[in-house]
Input
Amino acid sequence: MDTLLQDLRYAIRSLLRAPGFALVAVLTLALGIGANTTIFSAVNGVLLRDLPYDHPERVVRLVGTQSGGESRGTVSLPDVLDLRARATVFEEVAAYDEWTPTLAGGGVPERLHAASVTSPFFRVLGVRPVLGRFFRPDEDRPGHDPAVVLSHGLWRRRFGADPGIVGRAVELSGISYTVAGVAPAGFEDPGLHDAAEQDPQLWRVTPGYFAPESSARDGRAFTAVARLKPGVGMGRARAEVASVARWLARSYPEDDTGRGMELVSLKEEIVAPVRPALLALLAAAGFVLLIACANVANLLLARAESRSREIAVRTALGATRGRVARQLLTESVLLALLGGAAGAAVAAWAADSLVALGGAGLARGGQVRLDGRVLAFTAGASVLTGLLFGLAPLLRGASRDLQATLRAGAGGTAAPAGRRVRQLLVAGEVAVSVLLLVCAGLMVRSLWSLGSVDPGMETGGVLALEVTPPSGAYDSDEKLGLLYGRIHERLAALPGVAAVGSADILPLSGDFNGMQVDLAGRPAPRPGEELSVETRVVTPGFFAALGIPTVRGRVPAAEEALGSPAPAVVDRATARKLWPGEDPLGKQFRVYGADWVVAGVVGDTRQFSLERAPEPTLYLPRARAQEWIQAGATVLVRTEGDPAALAAAARAAVREVDPAIPVSDVRTMEQVVDRTTAAPRLRAVLLGVLAGIAFALGVVGIYGTVAYGVARRVPELGIRMALGARGGDVVRMVVREGMAPVALGTAVGLAAALAAGRALSGFLFGTPAYDPLTFAATAATLAATACLTCWLPARRAARVDPMVALRTD
Output
C-alpha cells in the first residue's frame, strides 16, 4: 500500500510538471468516456433495467396473430376471458383498452389519456398503491360502482397530492367515479401507447362495454397481459396458449378461423424496436473511445521518448522494469480516472439531452439516468482505458537498450520504430473515423430521404387541436353536428384561416381503425379472407384543410350524407384493392352496418408513418357516421400564416362556443410529421455526433503525430536544407509521410464500412448501404482535412533556419 501511495504521489507530481499534456489527455479521454457513459446510460435504462414490477420476468403479453404469421398485437376480450378460464399456466390475466375522458371540476376541463382495464390489471403487474387500493375481483361484474385509480403525477398536479383523495368522487366525461387509490410514482404502464404517447393518467375498472355480451369476438381492439405462475417456463406457457387458440378456432369458426394468440415477454416486446439501434450506438461510442485511447497513447509515447533518459537513470540506479512499469501504469490510470470523472460530468448533462432528443423514438426514456451501475461502468471503463493506452509506452520502453539510451543526448531524431508505432496508431484512428463517418453519412442521407417523402398532404400551415365535447351536454348526433358546425364557423372566421375540417383520427398520429368491408354484388368472404381497410370519419373541409387532392368525382357536401346509400370518398389505394381495374365511382359497399356509394376518389396519404406505404383508406362523412364514433375529434385549421401563432386564438374560439369543452394536443401538422421521424432522427443525430467526435480526435491525432515528428527531426531537416533542399521539398516530404498512414487507415475504414453495410441496411430508408456518394464524400473530406493538417506543421518545418537547426543537435 505504501508503494502504491508513493507511485500515486509521484504520478501527481509528474502530471503537475506537464499541465498542458495532462489537460489535453484528460479532455480527450473525457470525450471518449463521456460518449460511452451517455450511451450506456440509455442501454442501462432501456435494455438492462428491469420493468418496475414484482418478478417482472413472469409478466408476459398476449399478442394476436392471423394467417401467415402476421402479428396484429391486439385481441378480442371474449378470447381473453376464455383463455383466462381454460389456461393453467397463469396466475392472472388482464385486458385493457385506451380511454380519453374529460376531467371536469376544479379548474379548466382537461382531456386525459387514460385506460379501461379488467380488475386483475395491477395484480398482473405486481405493484402496490401508495394510497387506497387497486381494483377488486367483484368489480369485474356488471353493475359495480364506477371506480378509478389515479396516476401519481395526476394526483400531485391536479389534486395537490391530497392524502384524502381516496373515496372522493371525480367527474369524468359526465360520469361520477370514486377514487379507489393512487398508483406509485414511476409506474410504467404496459399499455397500447408507444414511446410517442404519455403513460395513462388514470385507470377505470371494467366499463359496461367490457361485458361479455357487449363485446364482439371479432372486435380485436384489446391488449392483454398475464402473469405466469412460479416455475412455469415460456415454452410450456406458449404451448398451452397455442392449444387454447386452436380450441377457439374450432369453437368459433366464424370469428377465430385463421386467428391465433402468441405469448411474448413484455419487456422484450417493449425494448425490441430500440435494441439494435442502442447496441449499434454503444459500439460506435466504443470506437470513439478507442480513438481517444490511440491519441493518448501517442501522447504518452512522445512523453516517454522525452523521459527516456530519466527512466534509464532510474533503472540504472536499481529500479526494476516491473517497478518502472507500475509507475507508468499508475500515471496512465490516474489520467484515465480524471478523464472518467470529467466524462461522467459530461454524461450527466448529455443524458438529459439524449432523452429530450429521443422523445417518441426512445422507449422507457424516463429510466435513462446516471445510477450506480452507470457510474460503475464509467469507473471500469476508465481503469481499462488507462491500462490500454498505458501499454504502448511500456512495450516501446521494453525494447530500448539501456546503455544506448544513457549515451544518447537529449536531441536527435525520433527512432524509426517509435515513428512506426505512432503511424500505426494514426492509421487505426483514421480507419475507425472513416467507418463512423460513412455510417453517419448513410444515416443522414436516409433521414433526408425520409424527410423528402410526400405524405400525400400539405402539412405546412396547418394547426391540429383535439376537441372533446362533454357527453352529457351533447347526447345526440344532431347536437354534436350543430356543435362542430359552430366550432368550424368560429375558427373559419379567424384572420388568415383558409379552411377548417375535422376527423376522428389524425393522419400520422399512429391511431388506427381497420374495418371489414363487404362489397355489393359479391359473395360473402370465407373466414380469414375478409377485406379490410382503414376508415376515417371526416367533415367535407378535411380534404381542403390538409390539401389532399381530389382525383376523380367529388367530395360530397355534409347535407348529402343522410341519403341511402350515403356518399363516401375512397383513396386510390382503396380503389386498387377493392375494385382493381374498375371504375370505383358509383360502386357500393357495406361498412359499419350501413350501405355506402363511392362519390369521389382522393390521393393516397400516409396514415401511420412516412416509412410505410399509404394504407387503403375510406373516408366517411361525419354527419352519417357520427353514431359509430366517439364524440371527440381532431379539428384541422389551415392558415396563411404561422399555424403555431394561431394556437391561442383557436383555443379561445372553441371556448367561446362552449367553455366546458377541453382543447388538448394543440400542435402543428409539421410537428406531427416530425414525431414520426423521431427514431431515425435520434439515430442519425447521435451517430453523427459520435462520428464528429471521432473525426475531430482523428484530426488532432494526425496533427499531433506530424507536429511531434517534425519537432524531433529539426536537426535532420536542417541538414537537408543545408545540403540544398528547398522549402517546397521539405513540405512535400512531410506531407507525403504524414498522409501515408492516413491513406492506409482510409482504405481499411472503407473496407470495414462495406462489411458493416449489411448490418446497417435495416436502419436505412431510400438509401443503399453501399451508397457510392457517401463513401466518396467521406474519403475526400478526410483526405482534404488530413492534407491540410499535415501541411500546417510541414510549412513550419520549411521555414527552419539550417544554422539554428544544426545548433540544436
Notes: The radius of gyration is 34 Å. Residues 291 and 429 are 5 Å apart (CA to CA). The mean pLDDT is 82.
